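Q: Joint fold for the lines below.
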Amino acid sequence: MLSIRVDNEKCNGCRLCEVVCAVAHSLETNIAKIDWADLPAPRLRVEETDSGEGYFLSICRHCEQPACVDGCVSGALFVDEKSGVVDINIERCIGCWSCVMECPFGGLSLVITDDLGHRSHTTDGESLEGNTHHHAVSIKCDGCRELSTALCLRFCPTGALRGEEGIGGNGGGPALARRLRRERVMAQLNLGSNRGSGADGGDGQ
Amino acid sequence: MKRYLIIGNGIAGLTAVKAIRNLDLDGKVTVVSTEDYPAYSRVLLTHYIAGHAEEDDLFLIKRSGYDELGVSVVWGIPAQGVDASSNSVQLRDGRRLAYDSLLIATGARPRFRGSVGANDYTNAIGLRTIDDARTIREVAVQGGSIVVTGGGLVGVKLVSALGEAGFVPPHLLVRSPHLLSQVADDEAAGMVANQLASKGVRLHLATHIEEVISESGRASGSRASRADLPSRRITRLRLSTGEQLNCDLLVMCKGVTPATECTSGQVEQDWGIVVDEKMRTNKPDIFAVGDVAATRDLISGERRVSAIWPHAVSQARVAGINMAGGEAAFSGALSRNAMDVMGLPFISMGQVRVPADSSYEVLVERKPDSYRKLVLRDRHLVGAVLVGNVAEAGRLQALIRKGEPLS
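A: Joint structure:
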């Protein structure tokens, strides 16, 4: 089961996690073609502490009994039983802010759907086009589930972000095409495309 | 084989059923559902009116889902009375159901006050059920004039929804000079009021209904012949300011009353049904959760009904576990509410009004588009109001719960 651990003391504010997250959730599969000025919002945030002496990370921990899921009034947030990923079906999200109020880690934020970029984020693989009546929907870490490992965990150079265990059980069917497409991104980021794939999960580190 | 009986089929009833089934696959579980619908999200009703959600999206489970959970449901029949001495519940149709463990999750009903009674007029309703929401949407779609009374969360969310969907701008009547007097300070409430007014909602603060002008007229369709239904229809309202409003539908959003009728005289009650941290009433086999239950407040230490969704979920899980023989405790109530007021996010939690008392300290940040206020008592965070920028809400809630002094 996926579980993300954060050690803010180790964060040096490099923001590589934000970049790889945005890239992983962009529509562009060819990294050379990425419009860096037009990346979607990352699903985690690095912020300076008020004192300016350190940083803290806002990212979903993929709790076992998540407060955001308990607080979700629309049935959009759910725990994927196979992988343990706390995920959202944004088609059902009505932008009510309840999850933002409930998560003690600041792991969710609301974005205008246009800023979301990555259409395949919906759990059923549908595009966002039918979603025009929502002005804002909640976004959060999806564990980069199609990549079998969360990219931020792979790239964090200081150990501020750690995965406790890998993510198992990739979705099949429509998820597969997306996974392959995104594995191309991973390959271009010099990660190789075959790590940690398959039902027994990645190593998460 | 243990017999579980759950009265109420909202998010609380459904959550309790799942918690029971998690521990006891063999027990006989029966749900009594007053409405003939699978459990649905009442909090979504204003979003349905706004067009954010379709009617199908309201449901938390399909009818067939109850079969999959191995639960039998009594559809569309309210519980009449609990008899704790014989461990049974009488239904409105005369049937009697026996239980070993009973959960009261009957929720609450809209409070009617002042010049409009609950059954006085065909076109005065609350907003609590799918049927209420459908009625409001139908009148709105037909271009009717909707008057909402009550400046609490439901009233604000309703006029926000009607405005956002582009219907005829609704009127909002609020007796107090401020909106949201229970959950916001005056400054935050003022921002919400400005937001609503700037988007066309017609706000009438410090105003109440002076006179209801009505005509004879029964409801149409299948309801027409029922003698127990009201026979008069509101046409106009005369306000305390002297102004008169056309009114096709009056929606009462003046708070709710716990639906405790069926347990009357059987379990201890004050503001609601009194429960301990296991959600057990003073009768060992009877539990109560959600909008009907009175629990200890984390900030004030006093017992109160804090009728919010996340409490319904966590209390119901606790009750279900305890009913099925497990061990769980509710951590205490922390009132909190989030909403989007036509694009303006608003979250408040804990204590937001500050008494003139030197043990309190208030920190305020004002920016052009946002207002954030923190309330500290003896250096402990006890409340927060966030308007415009609510990103820190979850972390602040965690700080309130932690109960450690801030440096």
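Q: Anything notable?
A: The beta strands of chain A are 4-6, 45-48, 55-58, 77-79, 86-88, 108-112, 136-140, 161-163. Chain A touches chain B at residues 67, 70-71, 73-75, 92, 94-98, 100-110, 133-136 (CB under 8 Å).
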